[in-house]
Amino acid sequence: MRLRRVYDETGPDDGTRVLVDRIWPRGVRRGSFDEWLKDVAPSTELRDWYGHDPTKFTEFRRRYLAELKLPAQSRALAQLRKLEKSGTVTVLTATKEADISHAKILVDLLH
């Protein structure tokens, strides 16, 4: 499982490309990815609270992991795990700072 930004060039070894953002990224055409698992993304409230503030990342991670236990998020996470079992998965996000994003938390969780 690997992490990339949606704006990065597609690589030949990306495998299944999965968008994990709740909102469709600007300037990206539909059909650019194999899957869109928007339910695995943090809630709008949590995302707005966090605002990609590095000083809030530890608390964001704790709250996000708690959200992943909710039914819809749990089903989406199970789908991501299922995809991983069948080969390489590239988790995609539009955020500029992927290393402090929910996508990074997902990749770390599934490794």
UniProtKB/TrEMBL annotation:
Organism superkingdom: Bacteria
InterPro entries associated with the record: YeaO-like (IPR052552)
Official protein name in the record: DUF488 family protein
Source species of the chain: Asanoa iriomotensis
